[in-house]
Backbone:
């Protein structure tokens, strides 16, 4: 079943490019003049992409154009300087609390779908991944970092909190104390340290980032799609506080679904 048709204007307004090549989709944040800084239109574009991709897409790569992954929220939204077609932070809060909550939830949807176990998501991070950029990388299953990558949860330094879904994966990856330190100090974590603490799956030379991601995509595509999505779902449940008995039951149910699928493919059912 195909996904929804995507409006090219939504991608253009968000400064995002999408290329679908068979089972692989590549999302590129394409505002290199501002280090791929994000706006609400970026989040709307990401949400639209999540809705548009069909089940044949098994791997999604997220990257930035130029020398940075993403420098985070466009700083002009703080200064009051107009960004074409974008609301200011104060305008986002205009209206009722319910309306503001719904608007932020819609922005979060641009990141949430990347954690869906139906496909594998990979962040290819070069240079800055700051604030919303860091949260976008955290939304992915894998993070391949170039040696020049710098990760930072900058929101508290701006009087804000991380609200695009980044806190939960950060804690799951590095634990409460380390996550708290990264967020509260808002320090920049270099690639080698990110690898040591589990934020990165691998660190490669800048010139080798694309090849490393291509190799990882090829490895991810080798297993059967159903086996991958079921396994990702089991790993997610294992980190959500379920009991041993609950996790074992989930494993049994998933295995029975896989055995049924394999039997159907073999013509036994």
Residues:
């Amino acid at each position: 079943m195909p996904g929804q048709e995507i409006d090219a204007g939504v991608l253009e307004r968000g400064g995002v490019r999408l290329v679908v090549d068979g089972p692989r989709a590549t999302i590129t944040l394409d505002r290199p003049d501002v280090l791929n800084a994000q706006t609400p239109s970026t989040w709307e574009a990401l949400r639209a992409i999540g809705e548009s991709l069909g089940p044949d897409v098994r791997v999604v790569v997220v990257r930035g154009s130029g020398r940075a992954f993403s420098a985070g929220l466009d700083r002009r939204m703080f200064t009051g300087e107009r960004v074409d077609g974008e609301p200011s932070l104060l305008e986002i809060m205009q209206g009722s609390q319910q309306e503001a909550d719904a608007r932020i939830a819609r922005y979060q949807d641009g990141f949430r779908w990347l954690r869906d176990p139906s496909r594998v998501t990979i962040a290819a991070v070069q240079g800055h991944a700051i604030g919303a950029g860091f949260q976008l990388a955290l939304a992915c299953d894998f993070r391949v970092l170039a040696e020049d990558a710098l990760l930072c949860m900058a929101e508290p330094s701006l009087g804000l909190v991380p609200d695009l879904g980044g806190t939960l994966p950060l804690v799951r990856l590095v634990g409460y104390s380390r996550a708290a330190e990264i967020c509260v100090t808002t320090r920049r974590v270099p690639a080698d340290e990110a690898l040591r603490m589990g934020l990165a799956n691998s660190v490669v030379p800048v010139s080798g980032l694309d090849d490393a991601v291509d190799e990882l995509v090829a490895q991810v595509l080798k297993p059967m799609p159903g086996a991958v999505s079921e396994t990702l779902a089991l790993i997610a449940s294992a980190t959500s506080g379920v009991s041993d008995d609950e996790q074992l039951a989930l494993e049994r149910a998933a295995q029975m679904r896989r055995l049924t699928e394999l039997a159907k493919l073999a013509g036994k059912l």
Q: What stands out?
A: The beta strands are 16-21, 24-29, 59-64, 120-125, 128-130, 142-146, 150-152, 189-190, 202-204. The chain has twelve helices and nine strands. The chain has a mean pLDDT of 93. The radius of gyration is 19 Å.
